Amino acid sequence: MASKAAKRSEGTASQAVQTMIGNVCRLVSLPAPEQREFNSIAVPVVCQCTELGITVEQTCAWLAGHQEDIEQLLRQHGAVLFRGFPLETAEHFDAFIKTFKGYEDLPYEESLSFAVRVDVTGRVCTTNEGKKGGQVFHHEQAQTPHWPSKLFFYCERPATRGGGTAVCPSDQVLIKLRQAHPDFVQQLEDKGVKYTAYMASVQDASKGAGRSWKSFFGRDTREEVEKRMTELGYTWEWLENDALKATSPVLKAVRQAPGTDKQVFFNQLVAQIANAKEFGASDDGEAEANLSKYMTFGDGSPLDLKALKYAQQACDECAVELLWQAKDVALLDNYLVMHARRDFDGPRRVLASLVR
């Protein structure tokens, strides 16, 4: 049963877990920092394929028969790592994703991601096509009115050096932040937040936040984009060189993760400092000195930089490192965990799929 599998996976991360899911998968433990425990809950839970010679079709059949088990593990642990399954190509990954019943695709064309991505198959796209450097912890698209509920990542080719994906439990970050900066958290809960983006009319794949306003809003003309922004609750200003300044509606920064009793730090406040450099700030100093150009409380008042710096520190303290192996798949609950790409050298191909 799912509850039995989830319960038995709560042991010390350094101890091997012997729970089987069906006859092809065993829950196993990894050494830190690849797996850590928070309140006796391991992150991620690791599903290791034990069946030699299993096919993609057999993998999908196993998955279809144990989706409920996997989903209960996901609700409890926030991240599930599938390792050792025969997923050799993007098409295999696509088939794996499509096996999950009720997981509606959020295609890149409809998403409100700042990143430049490239579609690969019907359900699969590249991850951020921008700079190779590391990225800051964030909940996917939490700076917008529409975000995915879950994320799949697939490693087709690990980097020569680095290039892992770190995750951190968002509830643990919020607990730390509430203890250190209770007034700041209270203001987040009372006021919400707004984000401002500065976008060009053409894509810039050299940037981590280089998506054009045409692609971001999925429209080709200013008039069509203005209509879409009105529908989404944005305010805007057209700038020189056909650039767009767009400010989101007021969004919650603290939420309760659906299906759980956990309060989470669901936002992109920490990542927005890094985004600011690509929106026009020349360096970290300028971005931090002019923070209100890029994000504010919902009433327009300035955010506390010291508290944001502490939030970033808390993310790093809670980080768990997914050190990719070829054919790995990670399923993340976008409410329960944040994620961040680590910097890397050499070729790397990690693909993604978003679930509404």
Structural class: alpha+beta
Helical content band? 25-40%
User: Which percent range describes the beta-strand content?
Assistant: 15-25%
Mean pLDDT: 91
Distance between the termini: 27 Å
Count of DSSP E strands? 21
Order of adjacent strands in the largest pleated sheet: 1-2-5-6-18-8-21-7
Explain this structure to me?
This protein is of the alpha+beta class and 356 residues long. Helices cover 29% and strands 23% of the residues. The chain has helices at 2-8, 56-65, 67-77, 90-98, 170-180, 182-191, 213-217, 222-232, 269-279, 284-289, 305-317, and strands spanning 20-21, 25-28, 36-38, 41-43, 45-49, 79-83, 125-126, 150-157, 161-162, 165-169, 193-199, 235-238, 244-247, 255-256, 263-264, 295-297, 320-322, 329-333, 337-341, 344-345, 349-355. Strands 1-2-5-6-18-8-21-7 form an eight-stranded mixed β-sheet. Strands 12-13-11-16 form a four-stranded antiparallel β-sheet. A three-stranded antiparallel β-sheet has the order 17-10-19. Strand 3 (36-38) and strand 4 (41-43) form a beta hairpin. Helix 5 crosses helix 6 (182-191) and helix 5 crosses helix 11 (305-317). The longest helix has 13 residues, at 305-317.
